[in-house]
Amino acid sequence: MNVPTPPTALPEAVQPASLSDAIQPRPILWLITAVGIAMSLFQMYTAGIEPMGLFYQRSAHLGFILFLAFLIFPITGHTRPRGTIAWLVDAAFLTAAFLSGFYIFYFLDDIIDRAGWWSQTDIIMGIVATIAVLEASRRVVGLGMTIIGLIAIVYALAGPRGALPWLGDWMPGILSHRGASLDRLVGQLYLGQEGIFGLPLGVAATYVFMFVLFGAFLEVTGAGKFFIDLAFAATGRKPGGPAKAAVIASAGMGSISGSAIANVVTTGAFTIPLMKKLGYKPKEAGGIEAAASTGGQITPPLMGAGAFLMSEYTNVPYIDIVLVSIFPAILYLGTVYLFVHLMAMKQGMTGMSAAELPVVRDVLKAGWQFIVPLVVLLYLLVNNISPTRVGFWAIISVIAVTALRAGYALLVSDPKEGKPLTMDRLLASCMSGVRLMGQALELGARNAVAVSVACAVAGIIVGVVGLTGLGLKFSSMMISFSGGNLAVALFLVLIASLILGLGLPVTAAYIVLIILVGPALNQEFGVPLLIAHLVVFWYSQDSNVTPPVALAAFAGAAISGSKPMETSLVAWKYAKGLYLIPAFMVYNPEIIMGGETWYVIWTGIIVVIGLVGLVAALEGYLFTWMDMVSRVMIVPGAIAIFNPDEVIEAVGAAVVFGILAWNWAKARRHKTRLDDPRGHGKA
């Protein structure tokens, strides 16, 4: 298959860290490699061989992450090399990074002994660590999250008993609090269990890192190409084949990448040019890829960092979250796939020729080894093995099957093709394997920097929320603004997630939002705890595709050559399932929490009918063109399907199904007339 060359120009907001490598001196690149490999080996050792205490693990992880962040991301940005002054500044931050993590690591017992009676050194180190985390956030994640972290700190200090008492006078009554002293705030953020070293960083330092590293091993061994080829082989010949392949490949890449943007630039480099070649407009090609890649973040078995955090917050085993997320993920990807199919049918598109596509049998023969680690991963998760240990053994399985594949080629396949085994070829193969392992270990550490820094800043925000009681106050405001109406409350959560998404990455937006609105959804509106988390997790993904800031769509626009805003509008349209499916979970909790078999099946059927109807109404086409009356009538019918009352659900489903059936009959009559203009059918 002829594959287009991946583009190199991306908007600054989505530039990968490796672009800064071009301005780095070679010794610094070697140092980045050494630190990345050392960190990954440390993480694997503590995950699979000798577990480490909670604070020891988190503090060492933070030290490694901050050190890598300041090495990879110079203060001068990714376009200008460091000068003398920049090197002095970065040297100071590198020192702060080392001290931030390893001060706790070395003096943990002493810190615990004087809990609450902090020394001056403790306070100074806490301030240094907080500044280092915020600066790393500015460089790695973006200015938005850093500003939110600073606002949280200032808010904590504002109040009559705080370090900034004058600022408390400006606080609205519902937001006012007594304020915290500098010592108390530092104790909360750096020396306690609810700040920087809280649950978000804890999850990033264990589960998330191991699965990011697992994805890096899959990536360097060629799993990305395997998933893309498999998707093209399965769907390439169908109308709009490359677009459908984008949906499937992005779901597969979700098992490797923890980022929708990374999904776009990986699969989009192949799918977007081919979509344009078949007739999709550039904005459509970029928007389809962005919507599909966002689906990769909600697709089991790996669902980004949010799923691991969800497991910790709800005390629900990770495997249970994976299992209940399968059907909603299928629904989302199905809606994107249907959008793609209907657009292809409306425009009369065809698929690619067989000569341009790989054969499924050949793809599986060449890449079967990438399926084995996923099977191992699922098997261990089902058997209630710790996700950290599961990640460790999944990585070992990747190494094992890759080595077996290389050994088979060296000992069996190559000799049959006239390439006998020699010591030189054996040594070359071993060295190639060592280089691949080194690349994977470094890549895993690099890929973990952004999510871990985001989790550290999220820990600052969570710590301030706990210190000031802001969570309860935010819940009161939410109840007041919504008037006790659940639909309005969900809309407010959606708006809040979009606003947070302007400045925060998905994981951080989920953490902040669930801390603020989770208690209200669960305790005041009666939404089951797991569903409340799933709703916030899904809504937190919308910043990838929703204007005005839609980074996944912007990445798609860079590849397709379209305007970013136009592309994000298309992505927003195709990602409608991101908003509708969580709402259906809330009003029909049986789809997640379970219930009587017949009712769960009924619930699954009607949500499919409702989503198909809404997609058809938006596109104005299903089996054939839809008239405006039918499109308008579908909307109230689909809304009725979301109602928990069985009678209203049934009436809504009947209306939507009837309109869709009428459209099918209309298409059949039209086909009959085309086959025989006299209306008697074919002879």
Characteristics:
29 helices; mainly alpha; 683 residues; globular
Explain how this protein is built.
- The structure is a single chain.
- Helix 2 (54-72) packs across helix 8 (199-220).
- The chain is built from 29 helices and no strands.
- The radius of gyration is 27 Å and the shape is globular.
- The protein has helices spanning 26-48, 54-72, 84-113, 120-140, 143-157, 165-168, 182-189, 199-220, 223-235, 241-253, 260-278, 282-295, 304-314, 318-346, 360-367, 371-382, 387-416, 423-468, 470-482, 486-501, 506-524, 529-539, 551-560, 564-574, 577-587, 590-593, 597-619, 628-641, 646-675.
- It is an all-alpha fold and 683 residues long.
Average pLDDT number: 84
Seen as an oligomer or otherwise, the chain set is: single chain
| H/E series | HHHHHHHHHHHHHHHHHHHHHHHHHHHHH
Q: Main beta sheet, described? A: none
Weakly predicted, low-confidence segments: 1-17
| Percentage of residues in DSSP E strands | under 5%
Q: What structural category do the secondary elements indicate?
A: mainly alpha
Helical run tally: 29
Helices and strands, with pairings:
Blueprint: H1 26-48, H2 54-72, H3 84-113, H4 120-140, H5 143-157, H6 165-168, H7 182-189, H8 199-220, H9 223-235, H10 241-253, H11 260-278, H12 282-295, H13 304-314, H14 318-346, H15 360-367, H16 371-382, H17 387-416, H18 423-468, H19 470-482, H20 486-501, H21 506-524, H22 529-539, H23 551-560, H24 564-574, H25 577-587, H26 590-593, H27 597-619, H28 628-641, H29 646-675
Helix pairs in contact: 1-2, 1-8, 1-18, 2-3, 2-8, 2-18, 3-4, 4-5, 4-7, 4-18, 5-18, 8-13, 8-17, 8-18, 9-10, 9-15, 10-11, 10-12, 10-14, 11-12, 11-23, 12-14, 12-23, 12-24, 13-21, 13-22, 14-25, 14-27, 16-17, 17-18, 18-21, 19-20, 19-21, 20-21, 21-22, 22-25, 23-24, 27-28, 27-29, 28-29
